[in-house]
Specification:
This is KIF-binding protein. Residues 301-354 form a coiled coil. Belongs to the KIF-binding protein family. Pfam families: KBP_C. Keywords: Coiled coil, Cytoplasm, Cytoskeleton. This protein is an all-alpha fold. The chain has a domain at 6-74 and 94-256: Serine Threonine Protein Phosphatase 5, Tetratricopeptide repeat (Alpha Horseshoe). It is built from 23 helices and no strands. Helix 4 packs antiparallel against helix 5, helix 9 packs antiparallel against helix 10 (259-275) and helix 10 (259-275) packs parallel to helix 13. It is elongated, with a radius of gyration of 34 Å. The termini are far apart. The relative contact order is 0.04.
Length: 638
Amino acid sequence: MASFSSNEWKAVCAKFTNALQLSDVESRNDPENDPFRSKYKARELLTEIYCSLKNFEAGDGEEHDDGESSEPEPTEEPLDGEKPVDLDAFSRGWSSDSRAGLRAARLAAVEYYLGVNHVDTEELSAGQEHLMNCMKHLGKCRVSSENVSLFIHVRNQLGILWAGRDETEKSQGFLETAESIYQLYMKENGSPPTDMTEYFCSEENQLTHQERTKKFELAYTHTLYYLAQVYQYFGENERAANYCYSTLQRQLQLNQFNPMEWALNAATLSQYYITKGQYMEGRHCLAAATVISGLAGEVPSEAAAQESEAERDRREQLKQKRSEIARCWIKYCLNLLRDAKKLLEDNIGELDTDRQDELRRARSREEEEEGRKQALLFGSEDTFDSIASVEEKVSYLFPLDFTEARAIFLVGQNYVNQAKEHFQMDGFVTDHIEILQDHSALFRALAFFEEDVERRCKMHKRRVDMLEPICNDLNSQYYLLIRRQLMFELAETYNEMMDLKLTLANRQEDSQSLDNHTIKKFNHLCSASAKYFQMFLDSLCSPEGKIPEHLEEDVLRPALVARFRVARLHSKLISSSPPVQLDNLNKALENYKYVVQYCEAHPEAAAAAETELELSKEMVGLLPLKINRLKARMATNN
């Protein structure tokens, strides 16, 4: 057959349209017990189209095997990876394909859709073979506006396929070639190229200039999206972040995105910028996430959700995803406060006022350059103002005093309340506790900026009030690691309160010694701290209560620190009773000795607690003298 008749070609085009409809639309409604029914029907149509094209090619004088099967045969030796591509050759000419080139492109397109079909039905080897056959057909063509879209699509699919097999280097090769092809095409030609769906439609049904542009740019957006994941896999985090940003920005420009999915990706990207100290960029990502998530609509009311299972599912999904974005905001506020604390604290962890003044002067100079760039800008004219209004609610600058720190704290606390609306204790134990721990950490960071010691104590008391009930109620069998975290944090919190109470008492000008009320309060805080440190240590013991001979790496430092702190706390307890004093000193000595003896038996452990070990050695030498003096005094009194 030398050529298709008009009716024959219409039949081919109709089959192609039907195959796409089956794959992209009807397959969504396939029953659970036959999930690939529409995909298999589409495959049959694509195979028929391929045979028709090959028959036409044979009748027109091209090579053709007489015994060709009903489905296109794979290459004899399917290629595993991307062959080196002469990209310079691509850029030398972007002329239209010859008639033979168009035939090759049509065959390549059918192989591409068959490859995607097999991958979708979890037949990866067959899918790979068809996709490589597509590459083989394209190898006969020079890249042009008629086929460049297919050149990129097939490499995107091979990139996905190899990434799914954990062959990330092969995936990277295909995707980076797709990226280079796009960039060279845009440099040398740039006109909206033919989409491969147009190989099988009549002239009057060809896509418009705008539709072609959108489809081509979307294919390249997918290339960038997959490359972002590849670079993240290889630990190239900055590169991955740049590709992720480009993907998100292009999705907005093309208006091709799911609002909640886009918002979650933007919120996730913010966490990278936060860890790099780029708070302007992190804030912009989070503000954009907040605005775009609003496009998903309102959370359905409980009444509507009860009436419809679909509405109930939608309600829960929206609540969860918005709560996840809220958690990213919490991390933003918490890290901003913590990083500011690191900049401002002196060598004993207190506010360095000289450093504070220095940073104020530096900020003034920065504000003079306020017209400086913003590395990221999401959105269009419709969303810029909305994003900016969200950004204005929280600073990206390091807070330098309590007023500024409190403003950031309040934003973080607001998002804590939002996050807890979905992540409740009933059903989300781990998530709920993590949010409470972040809330506690916000109070701790804010307390650093508070100059009033009494108010600092109250902030730490808030931390105790939110964590202590949870810690005591949790089942140790199922939540041992979380309980350990809470025990340690509660012990440290009580310890901080004890130090603050002692500082406050020592500032009282009229008193030469502590009054009974202060002593009682001090001892309570001291004992509470020692109790939680001891609970942490007890949690490391065997069910029979035996202390482990070897501490695992993840608990080594916490265990040695807890031992040191218990020793220190027992030595600080105030009592007028010599026997009680002696008991406290003996307990202190016992714990100091443990730190020294453990590090002697396990020399590698010394590096985990250098300061604590040094002080413990010193106290092991001094405490026996103090104990002996106390014993002598007790003997004399008796």
